Structures are given as C-alpha cells and as structure tokens.
Amino acid sequence: MNAFRSLLLIAVLALVHPPNSVSIAAPKTRDYKHGTARPVPSKRAKSSHAPYESKACMVCHNKKKRGRGVGRPKKNMTKICFTCHSELKRVLGKYKHMHKPVKAGCISCHNPHNSAYKMLLMAPKPRLCTNCHVSIKTSINLKVKHDAVTHGASCSNCHDPHGSNIEKLLLALPYDQCIGCHNTNNLKDEKGRLLMNYKTLLGKSKVKHSPVEGKDCSSCHEVHGSKHFRLLTEPYPERFYAKYSKEEYALCFKCHDEDLVKIKTSRTATKFRDGARNLHYVHVKEPDRGRTCRACHAVHASEQKSLVRAAVPYGSSGWKLKLHYIRTKDGGSCERTCHGIKPYSRNKR
Ligand code: HEC
Ligand code: HEC
Ligand code: HEC
Ligand code: HEC
Ligand code: HEC
Ligand code: HEC
Ligand code: HEC
Ligand code: HEC
Ligand code: HEC
Fold this sequence. Notes:
This protein is of the alpha+beta class. The protein is built from 14 helices and 17 strands. A hairpin with a 4-residue loop joins strand 13 (311-314) and strand 14.
C-alpha cells in the first residue's frame, strides 16, 4: 500500500474509532436554570439571608418606579454579593480551579432571600448538583451505591462547590479522602458486612499492589456509584468460585495480560508454573468453577511477595483458611490447606 493510501486509511479509522472514544467519556453537564429565586414563605424557610431578614431589599433591588414592593434586581449581582462576602472573594481569587457556574453567578445555586433548604440553596444536595451533572446522576443511581455520596454533606463531602486548588474541585487528594473515611474498624456496607480499615492495612503491609502504591484507588473503583460489585470500574467475580471467562475478570485484564491464565502450557506467561504447566490455568480456568484470584491474592496489599495472602476469608461466616505459602528461588509450595503439600518449580523440565 502506498503512503497516501495508508494515511487515508488511518484517517478513516480515526473517524470510525476516534482515538479517545474508549477512554473516559467527557463529563455530561447540561445548562440548567433553577426557577426564579423569589422569596419562599417564611414558615417553609430553613435558612434566611441576613439582608433579606433585615429588609435591606435595596442593597440588591432597584426602587420600584410605581406602586408597592421592590423593583428589578440590580445588575452585576455577583459583585454585590462580594461587597459583603469579601472573604469568599479573596479565597476564590486564590483558587486554581473555579467552578464554572460560580463565574456565571451565585444565584445559580443560592436564593438571595431565603430557602426551604440549608445555606440558601436552590435545591437540596445531591439534586442541586445533579440537575446540571446528568452523568453523575446516572452514576449515583446505579446498583452499587456509595454512602460517601448519599450521606452527610453529600457531594460536598469531597468537592468544594465554589472552587479548589486540586483538580475536579476536590477538597483533598483522592487517596487522602478515601483513607480519611476508610480508617475505622466498624465501617459496614449496606448488607452489614464489615469493611477493612485501610489506614491499618496499608500502614502495616510490606507489599502493596502497584496502583495502590501509586495511591490511585480510582484505577479500580468508581467513587460515585457503579453497576459492579464493590464499586469496581470493571467486572470482577463476586464469589470464591466462578466459571472462567475473560469478561468476568475484565478488571484484572485491564492491566494484566490474559495469557497469565489462558494458556495451558507456557514458560513465559507466568511465574506460577510447574515447569511449563501453568498453575494459574489449573486453578482459575480448568475446573468448571475455578477459584477466583482472591483465593490466593490480596488485591490491595499483603505481607508476602506477589500479593499472596496469609489467609483467605471463606464462606459467609468470615472463617479464615490459612494458605501456608512458602516461596523458593524457582517456585514455591502451598501446604495443608486446599490440598497436601504441593511444591512447584519453574526449572522442572
Ligand atoms: C442579596 C440580594 C437580594 C436581597 C437582599 C433581596 N433580593 Fe429579591 N432578588 C434578588 C435577585 C438576584 C433576584 C432575581 C432572582 C432570579 O432572577 O432568579 C430577586 C428576585 C426577587 C423577587 C422575584 C422577582 C420576579 O421577577 O419574580 C422578589 C419578589 C424579590 N426579589 C423580593 C425581595 C424583597 C421583598 C426583598 C427584601 C425583603 C428582597 N427581594 C431582597 C436579590 C435580592
Ligand atoms: C449586605 C450584605 C450582604 C450581601 C450583599 C450578601 N450577603 Fe450573603 N450574607 C450576609 C450575612 C451578614 C450573612 C450571615 C453570615 C454569617 O452568618 O456568618 C450571609 C450569609 C450568606 C450565606 C450563608 C447562609 C447560611 O444559612 O449560613 C450565603 C450562602 C450567602 N450569604 C450568599 C449570598 C449571595 C449569593 C449573595 C449575592 C446574591 C449575598 N450573599 C449577598 C450578608 C450579605
Ligand atoms: C454550584 C453551586 C454554587 C454556586 C454557583 C455558589 N455556591 Fe455558595 N455554596 C454552595 C453550597 C452547596 C454551599 C454549602 C456548603 C457546602 O456544601 O460545602 C455553599 C455555601 C456558601 C456560603 C456559606 C459557607 C461558606 O463557604 O462560606 C456562602 C457565603 C456562599 N456559598 C456564597 C456564595 C457566593 C457569594 C457565590 C457566588 C460568588 C456562590 N456561593 C456560588 C453552592 C454554590
Ligand atoms: C448550573 C449548573 C451547575 C450546577 C448546579 C453544578 N455544576 Fe458543577 N459544573 C458545571 C459546569 C458547566 C462545569 C464545567 C464542565 C466542563 O468544564 O466541562 C462544572 C464542573 C464541575 C466539576 C469539575 C469537573 C472537571 O472536569 O474539572 C465538578 C467536580 C463539579 N462541577 C461538581 C459540582 C458539584 C459538587 C455541584 C453541587 C454542589 C455542582 N457541580 C453543581 C455546572 C454546574
Ligand atoms: C467520596 C468522594 C466524592 C463524593 C462524595 C463525590 N465525588 Fe465527585 N469526584 C470524586 C473524585 C475523586 C473525582 C475524580 C475522579 C473521577 O473522575 O472519578 C470526582 C469527579 C467528579 C466530577 C468530574 C467527572 C469527570 O468525569 O471528570 C464531577 C462532575 C463530580 N465528581 C461531581 C460530583 C457530584 C455531583 C457529587 C454528588 C452527587 C459528587 N461528585 C460526589 C470524589 C467524590
Ligand atoms: C465521606 C466518607 C467516605 C469517603 C471520602 C470515601 N468513602 Fe468509601 N465508603 C464510605 C462508607 C460509609 C461506606 C460503607 C457504606 C457503603 O457501602 O456505601 C463506603 C463503602 C465503600 C466501598 C464498598 C461499597 C460496597 O457497597 O460494596 C468501596 C469499594 C469504597 N467505599 C471505596 C472508596 C474509595 C475508593 C474512596 C476514595 C475515592 C472512598 N471510598 C471514599 C465512606 C467514604
Ligand atoms: C487493583 C485494583 C484495586 C485498587 C487499585 C484498589 N482496589 Fe479496593 N478493591 C478491589 C477489589 C477487586 C475489591 C473486591 C475484593 C474482594 O472481594 O476480594 C476491592 C474492595 C474494596 C473495598 C470493599 C471491601 C473491604 O473489605 O473493604 C474497599 C472499601 C476498597 N476496596 C477500598 C479501596 C481503597 C481505599 C483503595 C485505594 C487505597 C483501593 N480500594 C484500591 C480492587 C482495587
Ligand atoms: C490499574 C492497573 C492494574 C489493575 C486493574 C490490576 N493490576 Fe495487578 N499489577 C499492576 C501493576 C502495574 C503491577 C506491577 C507490575 C507487574 O508485576 O506486572 C501489578 C502486579 C500484580 C501482582 C504481582 C505483585 C508482585 O509483587 O509481583 C499481582 C498478584 C496482581 N497484580 C494481581 C492483580 C489482580 C488479581 C487484579 C484484579 C483484581 C489486578 N492485579 C488488577 C497493575 C494492575
Ligand atoms: C491458587 C492460587 C492462585 C490463584 C487462584 C491466582 N494466583 Fe496469581 N499467583 C499465585 C502465586 C503463588 C504467584 C507467585 C508465583 C511466583 O512468583 O512463584 C502468582 C503470581 C501472580 C502474578 C505475578 C506475575 C506472574 O504471573 O507470575 C500476577 C499478575 C497474578 N498472579 C495475577 C493473578 C490473577 C489476575 C488471578 C485471577 C485471575 C490470579 N493471579 C489467581 C497464585 C495464584
């Protein structure tokens, strides 16, 4: 093929498969205008603005030409807000990232008079935010929900609604936020199962999975909500035993080569082999219902190399099965757990 034709082909392919089409979709935000920010009846008000309470209507309104009541609101309303909220103005001026609607005007989120919600908000969170952020609305309605989003300050648990020096308007770096909440022994998921204490776990473990070492929890977890178990970004089997398919393990194979498990005999696909016999294949793929990675690996961190775990939680009671893994120079062995002593050696012919 001549150079011109191959260039043409690349151009056509780029049209059919734009280079970024498989990566994260751009956040879907829609223009949204809450209703007119007129005063709400005082018995419904949960918050009220000092200048409104003190009837200083003319701070923000022009005089009405004729009749009773107030005239139209003045122009440059944000500037008027800043005459009293100078501290916020100062802080906003220092932020590297300003939230776009703040530039457009404070009344896209605040009622300048009073409100049926806290902080003069035009709507309660998360609705205030998801009215514009429609893709986040989709995420938080998925099957697996995150308490971080649905409880407390909701979106403001992690984002500053006005601006921030950290990308995505975050209050702290993502990893510090995760560890900031996942640092207790009594956090439970919605089914009442205890979650691990990540501060302790990551503090004491000698070996950390590379993305965890890189403090990138988001490489495997969605924050807002997910259709996959444990808020995972891709499918991963929920149970101890599962019939093998590449799709079921999409999470691991996003970064690892499937050959690790897929090829029956190989001297290169994995170090977990006896001679050329691939023991990942033996355990994960060969049986009708293979063992999932968690049977041997801790996915966040572990005491031993290769993230091999000391014990495996088995069944719903949380009973732990000891693994007794011993590493050798060219292999290793597992003892007295699932089977008798079974050594493996990569050098075996
Ligand atoms: C902090 C500034 C501020 C103060 C103080 C204020 N307003 Fe307003 N008011 C506004 C703004 C801005 C709007 C326009 C809201 C919009 O367009 O959504 C408005 C709109 C209104 C409206 C609705 C107008 C319409 O077109 O439907 C009424 C009624 C109103 N104000 C009455 C009052 C009264 C009465 C007071 C004093 C007791 C008062 N406001 C004090 C800023 C203020
Ligand atoms: C005349 C001065 C003045 C102007 C103008 C003003 N505010 Fe305020 N605002 C106040 C005062 C005083 C408070 C109460 C501060 C406190 O409690 O610390 C307040 C509180 C608030 C609060 C917090 C409410 C709460 O329940 O704690 C918000 C939000 C707010 N203002 C938004 C605005 C917006 C938006 C504008 C412009 C449309 C504006 N303010 C203009 C004086 C003003
Ligand atoms: C995108 C929505 C949004 C916009 C736009 C917005 N705010 Fe807010 N603001 C909030 C929320 C939400 C809170 C409640 C605090 C929280 O959740 O952290 C808040 C809290 C406040 C408070 C009280 C607490 C504090 O941080 O001091 C003030 C005052 C305030 N806003 C003023 C303003 C002013 C002035 C503007 C315009 C320059 C503005 N806001 C624009 C969402 C918004
Ligand atoms: C009036 C519409 C509107 C509301 C309400 C709103 N946002 Fe936004 N938000 C936007 C727009 C527009 C952008 C800029 C999107 C872009 O640049 O593509 C944005 C950007 C963001 C970003 C940064 C995205 C990035 O890629 O950097 C975050 C995080 C965010 N908003 C969170 C919130 C939260 C939390 C709330 C509620 C407190 C909220 N938003 C309310 C319109 C809104
Ligand atoms: C537990 C912390 C946490 C909570 C709660 C949270 N977020 Fe986020 N949000 C993040 C992190 C971390 C990111 C950046 C990583 C990512 O894109 O997933 C982010 C990214 C975003 C973005 C940018 C999306 C993109 O694809 O670039 C928007 C918009 C956003 N959040 C809005 C919201 C809204 C709206 C809420 C409330 C419904 C909310 N967030 C609640 C942590 C949180
Ligand atoms: C504001 C506190 C808070 C923050 C910040 C937070 N979490 Fe959570 N998270 C919780 C709570 C509470 C639960 C237990 C209830 C539930 O399952 O939602 C939880 C549950 C989870 C679960 C299990 C969900 C399930 O139902 O199976 C995962 C996974 C998770 N969080 C990951 C993260 C990651 C990753 C981050 C950082 C990006 C993070 N969390 C930040 C409070 C938080
Ligand atoms: C390489 C992918 C990966 C990374 C990176 C990762 N996780 Fe996980 N996480 C998982 C998988 C897979 C599970 C389900 C484990 C299982 O059931 O065997 C899980 C489960 C969880 C759970 C619920 C189970 C429990 O007992 O706590 C929480 C909470 C959690 N992760 C938080 C985090 C935090 C915080 C980080 C960042 C420090 C992080 N994860 C980084 C893959 C990952
Ligand atoms: C975001 C990318 C990413 C994801 C997703 C991921 N890993 Fe990894 N993993 C790595 C990197 C990078 C390394 C270190 C380089 C290497 O050994 O290939 C690694 C190493 C490992 C190791 C060897 C650790 C050592 O010390 O030699 C194991 C075991 C492992 N991963 C298991 C898993 C399992 C199981 C899953 C799915 C639940 C998974 N990984 C998902 C990136 C990832
Ligand atoms: C029966 C136990 C067992 C199961 C199940 C298992 N592994 Fe392993 N894996 C090991 C052992 C043992 C090693 C260390 C081999 C060595 O270095 O001698 C290892 C090593 C690895 C490595 C390091 C690179 C390599 O191949 O040597 C990765 C990556 C890995 N496993 C990923 C996975 C993934 C992904 C799954 C699930 C699809 C999985 N493992 C299931 C026992 C297991």
